[in-house]
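debug: dumping io for the single-chain case to check the tokenizer round-trip. Nothing else runs in this session.
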Amino acid sequence: MKLSKLSIAIALTSTVFNPFYSHNANSNTLMQAKHFDQANFLDSPTLKTREDITEYLVSEKLDGIRAYWNGKALLTRSGKTIHAPNWFTGSLPNTALDGELWIARGKFQQVAQTVLDHKPNDDEWRSIKFMVFDLPSNSAPFEHRYQQLLNDINLTQIAHVSIVQQKVVTDITALEMQLKLLDESNGEGLMLHHRHNGYHPGRSDQLLKLKSYQDAEATVIGYTEGNGKFDNKMGALWVVTPDDITFKIGSGFKDFDRENPPAVGTTILFRYNGVTNSGIPRFARFIRIRDDLDI
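debug: decoded output
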């Protein structure tokens, strides 16, 4: 596959093909997490100007599809209907539930293909679990909402429903160790939820996500040719972020990706470790195409 001259006119296409200007993927119904900032935590009971990490309940961050059960229908984060089989939703309670449709670590693509199909495949849905972590319509503090989930016999007896386990960590060192062990098991990261936090739509200062890396979305605006072992294949993608940062991603691709690169205008997910002084993501690597901006 020859890609000569495909990376021209990047400055023009970055505006034309950037969907972040017009797309609103965020629903105002669900609570959203902010990134964990260790500088805000100091594990000393005598210093109350910063948070005590023991005030947070910690769980695994699941790499699935966010799902909201409103008592009648299963919806995506942006409010679109998830076409689940009747047996999957028929046993769910009338109570609103917030959670994640999940199979296992590293199985996001399989979840997405199953959940986003408008004609649900029973066999494929048998592998999906609804991992419930909150009660959106309940006004109690989070630690009480969690206990209510655990004590709901009708909910816990549904085979395809699981309650996401919450734990307390003793200090920052213990939190870092838990994250390290999760990384070694191909986990996504950790979620920290303040025990006294109410359920508030939108971004919450008391719901935090922690990863050993960062990930983000960008739009493909062009290509560079490969050379050497990548001759006649894609060498790198030119992309633009929602913040108008333009840069190249040259790693993380399989041979299939290089022979069949994402089309210009496609939204991709990439992983990185911090940014340069000019805001360019460091060590950016391709993860996958974003299948649907509404999930």
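debug: round-trip ok. The chain has two domains: 10-24+213-289, 31-200.
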